[in-house]
Design a protein that fits this description.
alpha/beta; 5-stranded parallel sheet; 3 domains; FAD/NAD(P)-binding domain; 13 helices; Enolase-like, domain 1
């Protein structure tokens, strides 16, 4: 006997669990299916973000930053630390506990909101009268029927051709979060978010890190001025980043009791280079995950990338079937998935869900942090948009000096005629938090002058945001 629901959500990552909760809040009978399993065999909802992405990586970044500060910065504050050691096993255990707290928190929210949770893999069986039959393959197989289905199955790490992840020597983001000891030499292919964040973690703990990037420019999606500032900081820290390389053969080689990874590549000068490393992290992007979804059974349409085809409202080609997050077009960001999940639940209820792709913030949680929203200067130039720019360095910010972290700047881009904010770009301390003000401003179509006229607390890092807005009109007060 199948169990009947108004809404079935397949996947309990940020898009899925949020969609399920919002749908339940709107009065629907909701089921959410997810197959993530923890080490003890229990349910681990939260998807890639909670289990092997956003949350655990931030836990390791925080631990490694504490270690780095104790070794290199506490002395400036008059703090003597002696011989500082890192217990990697304890660091990983703390990370695992942070993940579990988030898993348990989602299960609690399901219970609180009366969402029926099913632990297993969800897949389409067939269309039935008034909805779709969904199979749950888990410890106990279940058959559900839903009037509406939201697919939120996320994405998987992209592997290099002929170089599968073994998660021991050749690592995806998953394996990179479970390294048991500090590797002496670490190679990273791809200088995107995952490569930079994981490279930063292990560099701080003592690894000699080399990042190989195929593109000739560093962080091509980031505003060029911001990317250059970040690159200078990473170079100073000892993070070796090689641009414009062409990766060749990669093989694992036995060296006594250990196994090394040998990477052959051609550098930007055309020279043949061989890099030997203890571990290799491959971070060359992610691919939509429709594995085991059985889309053929119902004729759910995929595009050439393997993503589920949706319109602007996240509707698929099938009536009553929606898709959100990494498995559809658009940026693969947890908060984008959440916004789409809420919007779809509200659309099912006949409301007008809202997602504005132009005001989705991006963050790289390195040190310095990098965050931005809206268009870059190079995009505005390419589009022929007349604009004004203003920037302010953290070097001139009192709170940044007190923190001992004055790297970076805040940059505003505003329309030359209307002064409407077109983009805000930050590299520096707490950029991930500072960007929120810019997102709010852009969502309300504020001008740079609006931010310049708002009183900001002193001393605070946010004063750099105000000063950058003032700089658009060439009237900074503290620089």
């Amino acid at each position: 006997m199948s169990k009947q629901f108004d809404v079935i959500v397949i996947g309990a990552g940020p898009g899925g669990y949020i969609a399920a909760i919002r749908a339940a809040q709107l009065g629907f009978q909701v089921a959410c299916i997810d197959e993530w399993t923890n080490a003890a065999g229990g349910a681990a909802p939260g998807g890639t973000c909670t289990n092997v992405g956003c949350i655990p990586s931030k836990a390791l970044l925080q631990s490694s930053e504490h270690f780095d500060h104790a070794n290199h910065h506490f002395a400036e504050h008059g703090i003597s630390t002696g011989n500082v050691k890192m217990d990697v096993a304890k660091m990983i255990a703390r990370k695992d506990n942070v993940v579990k707290q988030n898993n348990d928190g989602i299960l609690y929210l399901f219970k609180k909101n009366k969402v029926s949770f099913f632990h297993g893999r969800g897949s389409f069986v067939k269309a039935v009268e008034g909805g779709y039959e969904i199979k749950v393959a888990g410890k106990a197989e279940e058959t559900l029927v839903g009037k509406q289905v939201i697919v939120a199955t996320g994405s998987n790490a992209r592997a290099l051709p002929n170089v599968p992840f073994d998660e021991v020597n050749v690592l995806s983001n998953d394996g990179a979060l479970r390294v048991g000891a500090v590797p002496k030499k670490l190679a990273v292919i791809g200088s995107g978010v995952i490569g930079l964040e994981m490279g930063s973690v292990w560099r701080r703990l003592g690894s000699e890190v080399t990042i190989l990037e195929g593109l000739p420019t560093f962080l091509g999606a980031v505003d060029e001025q911001i990317a250059k500032e970040a690159k200078k900081a990473f170079d100073k820290q000892g993070l070796k980043i090689e641009l414009g390389v062409k990766v060749g053969e990669i093989k694992t080689v036995k060296k006594g009791r250990n196994t090394e990874v040998s990477i052959a590549y051609t550098n930007a000068k055309g020279e043949e280079v061989k890099l030997d490393a203890d571990k290799l992290i491959v971070s060359i992007g992610r691919v939509p995950n429709t594995n085991g979804l059985n889309v053929e059974a119902v004729g759910l349409q995929l595009d050439e990338r393997g993503a589920i085809v949706v319109d602007g409202d996240c509707k698929t080609n099938l009536p009553g079937v929606w898709a959100v997050g990494d498995v559809v077009r658009g940026p693969m960001l947890a908060h984008k998935a959440e916004e789409e999940g809420v919007a779809v639940a509200e659309r099912i209820a006949g409301q007008h869900g809202h997602v504005n792709f132009n005001t989705i913030p991006w963050v790289i949680y390195t040190s310095p942090e990098i965050a931005w929203v809206g268009r870059t200067e190079q995009q505005l130039k390419a589009d022929g948009v007349k604009y004004k720019a203003g920037s302010f360095p953290f070097l001139a910010n009192g709170r940044a000096r007190a923190l001992g972290d004055t790297t970076g700047l805040v940059k505003f881009l505003a329309d030359a005629q209307t002064d409407e904010i077109l983009g805000v770009h930050i590299v520096g301390p707490m950029a991930s938090e500072l960007i929120a003000e810019a997102v709010v401003a852009m969502e309300f179509r504020a001008s740079a002058e609006d931010i310049a006229r708002i009183c900001h607390a002193h001393p605070s890092l946010s004063e750099a945001t105000k000063e950058a807005a003032l700089a658009v009109d060439k009237r900074t007060l503290n620089f």
